[in-house]
Specification:
This protein is an all-alpha fold and 34 residues long. It has one domain. Helices cover 74% and strands 0% of the residues. The protein is built from 2 helices and no strands. The radius of gyration is 9 Å and the shape is globular.
Length: 34
């Protein structure tokens, strides 16, 4: 569930061309820690 939420958030934040990368993985860790 958290992953799906993160993906939705990331797509909204980065736009339709979003692709997961290393930087996003770091952000995901921060986001999930909130």
């Amino acid at each position: 569930m958290r992953y799906k939420k993160w993906t939705k958030f990331a797509i909204l934040y980065n736009g339709a061309g979003y692709k997961k990368n290393e930087y996003d993985t770091k952000l995901e860790g921060i986001y999930n820690g909130l």
